[in-house]
Inverse folding.
């Protein structure tokens, strides 16, 4: 999908150039530079961040079409602003019906290294031009922007590996989006397990799919309780990627894989239920991250654990007041069957520890409370280890997936332990319920360094944006994979 052009290769089709505030345009081709400068002087081209002007040239030797993207002040550029400006431009190019585009790297990169800018271009062309698959019978086949020429002054060939690295991050994001988008009658736990198996095969990862019998043998009473009312069998998807000599220093990604959440007997309302096909957004982020890890092969060990089932009602379903026993041995009084994600995660976390996890990141569309608290702009987090959290938070920041830490102290810990009949209860009160969800999972983590990420507000976008359409965002796929890739 990528080709490097040297400054001698002239672009005859369409070209993107960048313009920083109060600067002239940084391109080698003198004739093109003069032409564009004329437009700049006339005020037809703006350096305002994310403004795009389209210029046409009929002269021999010039590109037919030049997109001039405003980049704002050079000093205020960040990775995320760069992604969004690039994504915005790529979307415009795709909308114009083009299937390939060239970019003048020197004009867009500002103070960034060529490598960093190339990586961000590779990522953003993949994520920004993504469109959701549909089941429409009369599909409109729109042209897709799938080819990028990168024109640069020097350092040509090794730039390709950075473009590919960016692409690998982007593919992970899009994989997560695909999965969240699929309806629950199609993406059942069984189908998700098959999908993970295909991926493991492609990248040579180890995979183990635990079925209901395995769960019974292991005593996974929490996950099994959620599945109890369903006609669909549960699956625990376990993938291992080993990038180190030995199976040590293992990071676990645990993703909530509820393929549909009706709420169970604590049933959701008719307006609260639609969209709950996306309740496996945590699982999707984990699988998306594994796609990127598979492509980039970091020298790290990771285990992905995805407890998966739907949350349904029937004569067999679990009920409020039931007492269940988790894999850890801790008993749980069920007060609300709609607080099912934490039950599934409890057994997921316990299993990850049994498999040698030395640190755990869990990702889940866990609570409406986090949506109330942070909206769709930041992912809510909890941790038992500030240093580990800081690493994850910083990764999120550079990857454009901002994270905000919620409090977690003895008072909160005590709430999930309030029960007259069991060790824990799964839903103390509506008060601080985003924190209660995390605190419940924390009760199964113990001292293992742990970060909990609640993506209920960030996993689906309410409207189209620079880096994707309305709908699934694929959030946290990059932060998870980046945690391994950027630290190896
Ligand atoms: N899957 C939901 C959380 C959710 C809400 C995700 C909105 C995406 C958008 C979760 O299982 C749930 O139902 N949480 C309850 C917890 C409550 C019963 C303590 C909630 O948030 O209301
Ligand atoms: Mn629920
Ligand atoms: Zn749920």
């Amino acid at each position: 999908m990528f080709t490097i052009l040297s400054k001698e290769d002239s672009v005859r089709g369409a070209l993107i150039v960048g313009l920083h505030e109060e600067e002239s345009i940084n391109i080698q081709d003198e004739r093109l530079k003069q032409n564009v400068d004329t437009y700049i002087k006339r005020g037809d081209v703006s350096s305002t961040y994310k403004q795009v002007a389209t210029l046409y040239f009929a002269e021999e030797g010039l590109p037919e079409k030049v997109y001039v993207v405003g980049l704002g002040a050079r000093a205020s550029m960040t990775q995320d602003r760069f992604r969004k400006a690039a994504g915005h431009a790529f979307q415009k190019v795709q909308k114009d019906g083009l299937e390939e585009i060239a970019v003048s790297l020197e004009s867009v990169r500002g103070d960034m290294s060529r490598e960093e800018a190339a990586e961000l271009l590779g990522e953003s062309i993949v994520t920004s031009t993504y469109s959701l698959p549909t089941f429409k019978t009369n599909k409109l086949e729109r042209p897709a922007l799938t080819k990028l020429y990168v024109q640069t002054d020097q350092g040509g060939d090794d730039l390709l590996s950075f473009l590919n690295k960016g692409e690998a991050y982007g593919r992970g994001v899009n994989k997560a989006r695909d999965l969240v988008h699929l309806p629950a009658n199609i993406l059942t736990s069984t189908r998700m397990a098959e999908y993970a198996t295909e991926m493991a095969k492609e990248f040579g990862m180890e995979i183990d799919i635990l079925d209901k019998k395995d769960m019974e043998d292991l005593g996974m009473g929490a996950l099994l309780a959620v599945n109890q009312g369903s006609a669909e069998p549960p699956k625990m998807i376990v993938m291992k990627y080993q990038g180190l000599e030995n199976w040590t220093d293992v990071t676990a990604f645990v993703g909530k894989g509820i393929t549909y959440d009706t709420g169970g007997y604590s049933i959701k309302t008719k307006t609260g239920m639609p969209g709950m096909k996306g309740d496996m957004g945590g699982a999707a982020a984990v699988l998306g991250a594994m796609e990127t890890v598979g492509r980039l092969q970091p020298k790290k060990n990771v285990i992905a654990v995805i407890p998966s089932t739907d949350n349904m009602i029937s004569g067999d379903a679990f009920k409020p007041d039931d007492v269940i026993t988790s894999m850890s041995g801790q008993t749980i009084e069920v007060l609300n069957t709609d607080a099912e994600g934490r039950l599934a995660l409890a057994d997921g976390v316990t299993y990850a520890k049994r498999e040698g996890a030395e640190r755990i990141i869990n990702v889940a569309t866990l609570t409406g409370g986090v949506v109330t608290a942070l909206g769709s702009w930041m992912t809510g987090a909890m941790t038992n280890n500030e240093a580990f959290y800081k690493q994850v938070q910083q990764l999120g920041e550079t990857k454009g997936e901002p994270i905000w830490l919620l409090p977690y102290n003895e008072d909160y810990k005590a709430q999930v332990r309030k029960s007259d009949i069991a060790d824990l209860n799964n839903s103390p009160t509506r008060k601080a319920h985003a924190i209660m969800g995390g605190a419940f999972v924390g009760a199964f983590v113990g001292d293992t360094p742990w970060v909990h990420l609640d993506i209920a507000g960030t996993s689906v976008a309410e409207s189209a944006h620079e880096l994707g359409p309305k709908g699934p965002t694929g959030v946290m796929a990059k932060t998870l994979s980046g945690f391994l890739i950027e630290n190896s």
Q: What stands out?
A: The mean pLDDT is 97. Residues 258, 261, 279, 340-341 surround zinc ion (ligand 3) (CB under 6 Å).
